[in-house]
Amino acid sequence: MTNLLAAGRAVRSAAPHALFDAMRAALTEYYEAVDVDLLMADYSLTCLQPVTSLPHTARPLPVESSPEGRAFGSQEPFGQYVAEDGSVDLHLPVTVRGDRLGILTVRLPKHRCTPDTVEELTELAEVLGHEIVVAERDTDVYLQARRASRLTLASEMQWQLLPARACARPEYAIGAQLEPAYDIHGDNFDWSSTAENLTLSVTNGMGDGIQASLLTNLAVNALRNARRAGIDIADQAALADQAIYAQYRGEAYVSTLLLSFELATGRGRVVDAGSPQLWRQRDKAVEHVGFEAQLPLGMFDETAYVAQDFQALPGDRMIFVSDGVYSALSGAGEAYGERALARAIQSVGLLPAAAVPRALLQELASYRDADAEDDALVLCLDWFGRTDPAPDQAD
Known about the structure:
Its EC number is 3.1.3.16. The chain is an alpha+beta fold.
């Protein structure tokens, strides 16, 4: 425990760009580590990029077929013996509240690889993850390391707008992904929670490239501004609608699906303002959940929006998709369609929420035309419900 505290203190006191160097030095000093590597998941979640002094100088590792990828996928420590000297490589998830950032690999002498050491190193990997999230305000080192190739400017704006790619709380787990990861345009997602509520939005700005990204940025920030003022979701939609119309005068608009859930009861309210769809898997049945369609944000001046009721039950899996998913065309011009999407959702039923979006998008990629340019967004929300009172309500 003394080693754990000392190593954690060393990382927390390091300069933002030097977190990994501090972690490597601490693990060498306190745990006799022979070698330490930090791998960051790339934007497409297909490879793990080494953090080096100069990004892209070390070989990335595939998520699908590497020991490091196995630890990343399972979110459990994975050890492998290194034949030449009998030491052990421990691959440890670097994860923050369900958001999978990467893997910390620590090579230890065999005699140091005890259950207590594995537990402490697993905790230190989580500490490193928290520090990386904070450090990204002040350094580009970790964002650069995530890039398997260069992002377009529109993609840069969209990724910086996101809250994260996953989030987990006792009441729910969320995972989301955008494709093409390095050339995304107008699709986006957002969420925020309090002690009692979860608010979630899926947006799709019309157009391509930087114009679509600018439009979506305005929409998401307008929704956030209204949400942070404590306003109901129907009025959040109305205020965002006014902001977009004032800027574009109806020449551009944003399709949006906006939801708010009570964590204690699962009762929800929904504003359906455009093309994003909600699919629900309850028990073994998968179905498209339709709502009363309302106008996209910014299409007309001073549109009034009405929230509809919705109920989430423990065990529900909710899949949100953009039109780039359900309207995707094959090389022969055939639409992906509801039946294929329902089958795909059933096929990933055993995966955790954080892994579902990438799996569905991989399935979609094998179907649709390789030259398709439309964005594709998938967000998975697993609803567990609340069985105990919130901490501030407990006796």
